[in-house]
């Protein structure tokens, strides 16, 4: 039972919360995170992880019947019957209360508000918005934007408009690729009703637009933070962003991946190396070494 409860909480999906940490190096290097406290940041970060797990449990609770029709998701704890709906609801509430409690202890303005917005948008997604084409992807993308905003709130700084644009377009890119994979996989419309509103050609165009805008937005973001990045080093991390996006496209279009960004992140060695390269390039651009 404990193992199934852990699976239901999806701790492996906490890798998505790396977006909470994204503003940290830039804010510290710029000297704008004057009120930065590592303990408060970690409390808020793990609080958001628990809140996201609460959302995952509730979403699986709403999707249990449809997941039984999916070739992979039918083995999830709720879909397979390993965990009862009552236990799942109690687990979701406990995780939510603990997560909000950690955010409150972190004692940073707007963290509770942003966390509440994240929960409400995901509740809307779970109870019906996921059935509406485009709205489903936009709500999923908003979760990543809220993660960045949450990280900025923990640092007591305002997020850059370019950073939010980079995050939003990258999240839309991942969301449209996921819907494309669902469509190619020919999932039953009863499992994913929003697929009725998509076509492969539309999703191909949407993916291409989002990929291009994400790369351009990141390049402009590097220019905007010129006072933070060392002169001559502003564009050092851009090649890694472009490579990561194109490699993800390659995996989706050539290898047929794309249905689970989390699985790709854990399995793709090339993307992992690219991520490490990006971290090294950003730290060099910030003058940390």
Task: Describe the structure in brief.
The protein has about 290 residues and is mainly alpha-helical.
List the helices and strands and how they pair.
Blueprint: H1 2-9, H2 18-21, H3 24-30, H4 38-67, H5 77-80, H6 85-106, H7 111-127, H8 135-155, H9 161-184, H10 200-224, H11 238-253, H12 261-267, H13 269-285
Instruction: Domain count, please report it.
Output: 2
How many alpha or pi helices?
13
Structural class: mainly alpha
CATH class of the largest domain: Mainly Alpha
Encode the helix/strand succession as letters.
HHHHHHHHHHHHH
State the helicity in percent bands.
55-70%
Could you state the CATH homologous superfamily of the largest domain? UbiA prenyltransferase
CATH topology of the largest domain: Tetracycline Repressor, domain 2
Give the overall average pLDDT.
89
Tell me the major beta sheet: none
Rg, nearest Å: 19 Å
Description:
- It is a single chain.
- It is built from 13 helices and no strands.
- It has two domains: about 1-30 and about 40-160, Tetracycline Repressor, domain 2 (Orthogonal Bundle); about 160-289.
- The chain is globular.
- The termini are far apart.
- Helix 4 runs antiparallel to helix 6 (about 85-105) and helix 7 (about 110-125) runs antiparallel to helix 8.
- The protein has about 290 residues and is mainly alpha-helical.
- Helices cover about 70% and strands about 0% of the residues.
């Amino acid at each position: 039972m404990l193992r199934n409860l852990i699976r239901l909480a999806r701790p492996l999906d906490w890798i998505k919360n790396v977006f909470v940490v994204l503003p940290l190096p830039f804010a510290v290097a710029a000297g704008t995170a004057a009120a930065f406290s590592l303990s408060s940041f970690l409390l808020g970060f793990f609080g958001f992880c628990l809140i996201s797990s609460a959302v995952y449990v509730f979403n699986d609770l709403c999707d249990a019947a449809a997941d039984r029709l999916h070739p992979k998701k039918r083995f999830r704890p709720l879909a397979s019957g390993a965990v009862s709906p009552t236990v799942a609801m109690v687990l979701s509430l406990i995780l939510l209360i603990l997560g909000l409690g950690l955010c409150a202890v972190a004692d940073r303005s707007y963290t509770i508000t942003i966390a509440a917005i994240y929960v409400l948008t995901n509740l809307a997604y779970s109870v019906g918005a996921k059935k509406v084409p485009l709205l489903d992807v936009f709500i999923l993308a908003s979760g990543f934007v809220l993660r960045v905003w949450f990280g900025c709130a923990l640092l007591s700084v305002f997020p850059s408009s370019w950073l939010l644009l980079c995050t939003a377009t990258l999240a839309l890119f991942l969301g449209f690729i996921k819907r494309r994979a669902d469509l190619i996989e020919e999932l039953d419309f009863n499992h994913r009703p929003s697929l009725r509103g998509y076509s492969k050609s539309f999703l191909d165009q949407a993916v291409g637009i989002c990929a291009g805008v994400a790369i351009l937005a990141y390049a402009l973001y590097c220019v905007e933070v010129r006072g933070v990045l060392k002169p001559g080093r502003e564009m050092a991390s851009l090649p890694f962003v472009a490579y990561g996006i194109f490699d993800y496209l390659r995996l989706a279009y050539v290898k047929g991946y794309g249905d689970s960004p989390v699985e790709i992140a854990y399995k793709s060695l090339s993307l992992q190396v690219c991520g490490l390269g990006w971290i090294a390039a950003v730290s060099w651009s910030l003058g940390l070494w």
